[in-house]
Amino acid sequence: MTHRPRRDGELSSVLRRLDGAPYSRYKSLTGRWPAPGHQLEMVRAQADPFAPPARLALHIPSAIAGFPPELWRTPLRRRALAGFLARRAAAEAGPGILVDAGGQEVLDRASCQIGGPDAADPGSVTLRLNAPLPGPRRRVDGRAAEELLCHRLPRLAERALRHQALDTAALQRFIHTVEDSCALREALPGLGLVAFVADGAVLPRRSGVDDRMATGPGVVPFRSPEKLRLTVELPHAGRVPGMGVPEGVTLVVGGGFHGKSTLLRALESGIHDHVPGDGRELVAARPDTVKVRAEDGRRVERVDLHAFVSHLPTGQDTADFRTDNASGSTSQAASMVEAVEAGARVLLVDEDTAATNLMIRDARMQALVAKDREPLTPFVDLVRSLHRDHGVSTVLVMGGSGDYLEIADRVLMMDGYRPSDVTARAGELAAVPTGRRPEADAFPAVAHRRPDPASVNGTARGRVRIAARGTDALVFGEHTVDLRAVAQLADSPQVVGVGHALALLVREGHLDGRRTLAAALDLLDGQLALGVGPLLSVRDEDFALPRRFEVAAALNRLRTLTVGRDR
């Protein structure tokens, strides 16, 4: 829809004329309204007082925003600047104005974007937000709407989106923190590492529902064991000592409640940059790190599980396995294979959420149950091949089975949240025979699948329908995708981003029934490298850019998915 040119200040007089009109007349405000120092855009008017709030945007030209080019010259700095501004806007917004600022992670979000060097106005700022439009008795309240749109939002722009109004030292610290985090993550492959944890990092969180840094006298800052300590040089923090987690198989052991899972959770979050003061600012993991777990009841569609499952009593082909109700062992096996198919090069596994029978089978059980009666091959016999033959490293929390000592490249013990390298002692213990016999020594190549786009439908009643239920589920079209076992989703806007990415895969023809899933994800990555624009074209709403791995995980859990297969 096109609109005639509008004049500065015209919105106020229009709202006064609309006062008392039917609520639906708010739709006539769709489009851009110029005002001194900014443009207000009504992206999507509210349908009625009980519908979702209106979608609005504030556009601030670079001449007014005033941010020096050094603050937005790179995509990384634009993301960091936008993250800082979104948080500032959320703090200044006041009642009823909703800004997606995110949590502890600094993600590329639709809520705030900075125009880059190739933009029509480099250095400009766009803030997208939601706000309910006032309408008692289903009538336009023109005076209240004028206060919201013509006074409160301009004040928000002045206080949160202009360089001169900000704490420049805090802004610089925020950008430098993100730059150091990215530089650290990018350095990992060249150092032969899968992860790094800086000395002084604080890994525990306040609670299961509060991801901020834990505080108090019982909190133990991280300190690297001497044998794993190295120093990295970062652009702003300078020389930073800490623990490097090398490629290969790393085992994390220790007593219960001593910090094993806390360390692993910090590594799984290390794929993201974090805000200053989070405690994990310099905890980094490779971007292709994926946490996997058992997930009873999930759907599996034509995944080759024969490395883990040799046969089934039903006679089903485990090299082309499908089920609508996977067991713990088959679900975890499928998740591992799917992660490698999507391009993962680091797997994180915690015994607390793993299927025991897929992880271990000790000598006594081997003696009791003959191999020809046991279809499962435990991960302990495959994890070495996964690294040797496919370049996929594993970090594994395992406090209940010593069989993994024999295959680990290094063993890290957590004791009171303090790590120590016990690889030598573990090797001595592993040299004592237990009588256990390896049951395999080769992880086969992954069979790539070709998703059918007709089975990936994000519409309901002819309209795109994408919504998040926290981080637990994605509503996609007429279906709900269970994401409770997808551990590395940062927040609900990123779940929405996953839904947008699925819709984009189909709309752009990346999923065409012939292209492999991995190749389609490569094309998606190419588009998302440009920023949020491609996903905004699906629908202008709050979302954060997802990784390819969470997109693949959602697709694999979509119960309508059908695929072709390489044999």
Structure description:
This protein has 567 residues and is of the alpha+beta class. Helices cover 29% and strands 21% of the residues. It has a six-stranded mixed β-sheet, with helices on both faces. Strands 1-2-3-5-4 form a five-stranded antiparallel β-sheet. A four-stranded antiparallel β-sheet has the order 9-10-6-12, sandwiched between helices. Helix 12 (492-507) crosses helix 15 (548-557). It is globular. The model has no long low-confidence stretch (mean pLDDT 96).
Please describe the topology of this protein.
Blueprint: H1 10-18, E1 31-35, E2 38-44, E3 54-60, H2 62-65, H3 75-92, E4 112-114, E5 125-131, H4 142-160, H5 168-187, E6 193-198, E7 205-207, E8 210-213, E9 229-234, E10 238-246, E11 249-254, H6 260-269, E12 283-285, E13 289-292, E14 300-303, E15 321-323, H7 328-342, E16 346-350, H8 356-359, H9 363-368, H10 383-390, E17 393-397, E18 410-415, E19 418-421, H11 423-430, E20 449-451, E21 459-460, E22 463-464, E23 466-469, E24 473-476, E25 479-482, H12 492-507, H13 517-528, H14 533-536, H15 548-557, E26 563-565
Parallel strand pairs: 11-17, 11-18, 13-16, 16-17
Antiparallel strand pairs: 1-2, 2-3, 3-5, 4-5, 6-10, 6-12, 7-8, 9-10, 14-15, 18-19, 20-26, 21-22, 23-24, 24-25
Helix pairs in contact: 1-4, 3-4, 3-5, 7-15, 12-15
Short description:
By secondary structure, this protein is of the alpha+beta class.
The description of the largest β-sheet is: 6 strands, mixed
Report the count of strand segments. Answer: 26
Question: What is the CA–CA distance across the termini?
Answer: 50 Å
Q: How much strand?
A: 15-25%
Shape: globular
